[in-house]
Write a structure and sequence with these properties.
496 residues, alpha+beta, 6-stranded antiparallel beta sheet, two-stranded antiparallel ribbon, 41% helix, 14% strand
Length: 496
């Protein structure tokens, strides 16, 4: 247990304490600081006693910790005090007080009372850069080095309002001024400093490499973001058509859904009983009397997005409340019926995808045809996840028919899959890889971090899910000859 005491010039060892106190006060007086406060703290741990001599100068705390294994504690206290004052006096004389802001721990080894060895450690707490403790001022020597300009901050694709140009302009801007011409031997004149943009071979090679990647990406993927019709077709059909085709297909899908809703509404109204005409007259009169005149202005400003049309379909609340892809994926990561926890994890995944830098596409593993550029995905995390899932979603599934290949073997037959089934299998692959990944920390956000990193790896072509998809499609091509095979089953005779 730690105990503290304050130094005073009186007591059993008043001469040592008084001389140490006066010496430190003299140093502070020369530095034009407030009078110091002295404390001594003892802490016994593991059979050893640690004496800490604390000095509070100008609101800053210094601690000289002294470990002593001997039996004479008075000598240990005096040694700790002398060690602290000697270091403080030496630092004041050498004008090294300015290094307090960068110093963390200083170990001072000394020998006290013959064979006893004492180690004192100086710890500096809250030593800010504004604290300048100097006994004498030293004139600053002018530097002969040329000023160095800081490199501009890097703007990521997700921060740019427009798409990044395929080839940057290396020419001088309107505000740049040409530098002095080199000398005859090819060297630069003295006193010149390097500008913001350097023309070193390393920078040129890096720029050419980035230009090559940008050109390859612009040829494979679109430079413009998806339209609203393209996103609607992607979420409902799993593919990205051209903008013209997307408009036509989106209108057809909307008309088809409206027809289904009308049929469901007609079927519901046909089962309801008709009311007598008196009740209809009463309701009409009641509605006419309660309705405001046509010239009256509405009370409120109205609804921002408008109210849904009546009659409501039977599945209005169940399937059309949330995004179709997010609703399916959220329920796939749900465990033990905890939907709120799954929604929280999905929100963390979307946040990580939104704040992550733009992905780097891989030409070896192309994404869904019609995918926008990488700088557009971080702006829409739902589109980010949908592109990753639909790009690795398998087109088929291998089913085995027992005892159909002869010799007790199963006959493998490929079958096509629907959209929801394809997305389910693809996300299960991503989920299995994310669960087997090691965590980089601790806390409730580790699952969301692993899942988001795996989705980014899928888009960048670094995930092992691509090999699994390729192996499945290769197996489907191998077994495509089994499609349409007539299976002859042996008749089983029952025993009588």
């Amino acid at each position: 247990m730690a105990t503290s005491s304050t130094y005073s010039p009186t007591g059993s060892n008043s001469s040592a304490s008084f001389s140490w106190q006066e010496r430190l006060e003299e140093v502070c007086r020369q530095a034009k600081l407030c009078p110091p406060v002295f404390q001594l703290v003892s802490d016994r741990r593991g059979g050893r006693t640690a004496w800490s001599s604390r000095v509070i100068v100008h609101g800053k705390t210094l601690e000289a910790r002294y470990w002593y294994d001997g039996k004479n504690l008075n000598n240990a206290r005096e040694d700790a005090a002398e060690c602290a004052i000697n270091w403080l006096s030496a630092s004041s004389g050498n004008s090294s007080w300015s290094h307090w802001s960068s110093a963390r721990e200083l170990e001072i080894s000394s020998r006290a009372h013959g064979a006893a060895r004492a180690v004192a450690m100086l710890r500096i707490w809250h030593a800010g850069r504004t604290l300048a403790l100097r006994s004498w001022s030293k004139p600053a020597v002018p530097s002969s080095k040329a000023p160095r300009q800081a490199r501009g901050s890097l703007r990521l694709y997700a921060d740019d309002s427009n798409a990044r140009p395929s080839k940057p302009d290396h020419g001088p801007g309107p505000e740049t001024t040409p530098g002095p011409a080199p000398t005859g031997d090819g060297t630069k004149p003295e006193g010149t400093s390097q500008g913001l943009f350097s023309n070193s071979p390393a920078d040129k090679s890096q720029d050419s490499f980035l230009d090559t990647i940008d050109d390859a990406i612009s040829n494979l993927y679109g430079k413009k973001p998806l339209t609203q019709a393209q996103e609607s077709v992607l979420y409902r059909r799993g593919r990205i058509p051209s903008p013209e085709e997307a408009e036509i297909e989106a209108q057809a899908l909307d008309a088809e859904e409206d027809a289904i809703e009308e049929d469901e509404a007609d079927s519901e109204t046909s089962h309801t009983s008709e009311a007598p005409p008196e009740s209809f007259d009463f309701l009409d009169q009641l509605s006419d009397s309660s309705s405001p005149p046509a010239d009256a202005e509405p009370e409120g400003p109205g609804h921002k997005f408008g109210l849904p049309k009546e009659p409501y379909p039977s599945d209005f609340h169940l399937k059309k409340r949330y995004h179709p892809v997010m609703d399916q994926v959220t329920r796939l990561i749900m465990r033990d019926g905890k939907l709120s926890l799954a929604q929280k994890n999905m929100g963390m995944v979307l946040f990580i995808l939104r704040t992550s830098p733009a992905p780097i596409y891989s030409p070896k593993f192309p994404l869904l045809p019609g995918t926008p550029g990488p700088w557009h995905l971080s702006l829409d995390p739902i589109l980010y996840m949908t592109i990753a899932i639909d790009s690795i979603a398998p087109m088929l599934q291998i089913r085995g028919i027992a005892n159909a290949a002869g010799g007790g073997r199963a006959l493998e037959v490929p079958h096509p899959l629907g959209l929801r089934r394809r997305r389910r299998i693809a996300f299960q692959w991503i989920l299995n890889v994310a669960q087997n990944k090691p965590s980089r920390g601790s806390g409730p956000k580790q699952f969301a971090s692993r899942l988001a990193s795996e989705i980014i790896a899928v888009v960048e072509g670094r995930s092992s899910v691509w090999e699994r998809r390729r192996a499945l499609h290769k197996q489907g091509v191998t077994t495509r000859s089994n499609i349409g095979t007539k299976i002859k089953m042996k008749k089983r005779y029952s025993k009588k």
